[in-house]
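Q: I'm teaching a short session on how sequence maps to structure, and I want students to see two examples side by side rather than one. Could you give me a first protein with its sequence written out and its structure tokens following it? Keep the formatting plain so it prints cleanly on a handout.
A: Of course. Example one:
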Amino acid sequence: MDEVVGRLERWLAANKPEVLGQLAPGATDEQLAACETAVGAKLPPGLRALLRWRNGNKPDGFSNVVAGWMLSSTEYIASTHTMMNGLADHGHFSSKDWWRSSWIPVLSNGGGDHVCIDRRGAFSGEPNQLIQFWHDNAMRKIVAPSFDDFLTAYVDALESGLWSRIEDSDYQDLELFDELLESRFAGYPFRAVDMDGRRGKRPPPPPPPVEADASRPVKIYSAMATFSVGDSIRHPAFGAGVVQRVEQTKFDVLFGGELKTLVHAKSDTKLEKPKKRDDGSPPGRPPF
């Protein structure tokens, strides 16, 4: 994971050097050990590498360095974990789903909301998955199987141009990042608890991809042609693909590892342009 953190630093240095300037020096081995003692667990390799690189923000820094979230320092992780467990122990939360002692808050937005490592897998049974905690509503989303998976996907997304620019302000397209996580980790992200505190069911993993039917010839894509599931097609821009799902006027094709929706069965009938009337009045209007 040191290599992933190194890639993050190089990207920030080239694209967002002001972000680096707001981050604190890296955590020492003693600080990491004290944090792990406080939370009662070993931190994952990716988080340890990230904290050794930069131990959160400087006191006057507010850099959202990971997917729109600030990296919490070792001290902040430990103190927040202790505080939240204390509130839960004293009955401050209406539901056990509001806060679990197995959650380790590792990213923050500075307003009481956190991304946490869920050591026991509170909702899906998958240990060490990553969960979003909101202090003022019950919604909980499982975003990735692990912190290391999440961090690696995020750095990959940065390098592929996820962080875009509009006018003079920066933003990160987190909906696109969710789509990337969904394509990389089957069944993630998913909403474990909705805004009203109701627990949801984890969606089933997507079905395995449809293989090409070798008995059929390869079809060249045309919007006016008709396609069936299992057809092999060749697209002028996307290359070779296999049809996965078909509707009346559109269909899904898997090109490599990317699913795209195309149109088909499109009529080539063109509407005749209205003709000008003999009396000179515009088409579609009465001559008086």
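Q: Perfect. Now a second example for contrast.
A: Example two:
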Amino acid sequence: MKTSTHLTALALLASCAASTQAAVYFQEDFNNKVTQELTDAGWRFDKNEFAREKGTDFGIANSPFDSVNFPAGKPSSADFRDANELRIFGPADANGINTAPGDREGAGFLFSDSDVADGSDDIGTKSEFFAITTPFSTKGGGRPWFHADTAYLANNNGECVADFSVSVDGGETWIPFYQSAEPQRAIKGYNRSISAEPDYNGAEILGGTWPVLGSGSLTKSWLGLHGRVHFQLPEEAANKDDVRIRVRYFEPADAWWIALDNIVVDDSPAPAGNTVVLSENFEQGIPSS
């Protein structure tokens, strides 16, 4: 009888565990994949009519990461190495470790390198380079989250905008859920607007003058990203039949690079600990401690 009761308890636990599993809407690890293969599967790697930089196009970087295996040829980021002389341009996981080392057979990741490209699509060019996932459904689960191992390196004297957006209407309109501008954008946009085109708003793509918070994007940054990132998608992306994610450079202007790996869209929130180590609302000002 004890055995029967024990087995029943285990069955109930297993049933509960199954019922709380995340609904996975989309995932891609890019391993053993090439750009054309993903294009054939429904991905879109493209640029608009204003794009002029030669080599910024998104594509899949494949091991062993030499010039013939990169969308734009040998990446400028190949010059960045760690203490063991291993390249560190690849996407980083939650521990900051490269998810696609060049010595791992079959490793691959999504990549765009503006810095290695010829030319510079500066402010005012309206240049765009982007990658768009295949359409997927978010029906039958909770509000979706985007997770990815990431190395988005923002240029300290650059002026481009990089953003992650979602569409629920076949790509007709896009809702940003992460946007980042390089530090020179505000300065160069301001100088352009007062000296060349009085009506030009150098920050228009982000919704107005700097900094803009609380718009369609949940997160805005002057910096880059390194490690596994977690972004909750806007409410509009929940319970939809046709959802697509777009990764984009806008007016890249010799930006550095974007690398993404192990993309998952599900209904699991960002991981969080159980212990509060610091809590301060500053209602009484800055505490003496």
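Q: What should students look for in example two?
A: Point them to this: The longest strand covers residues 257-266. Also worth mentioning: The longest helix spans residues 2-19.
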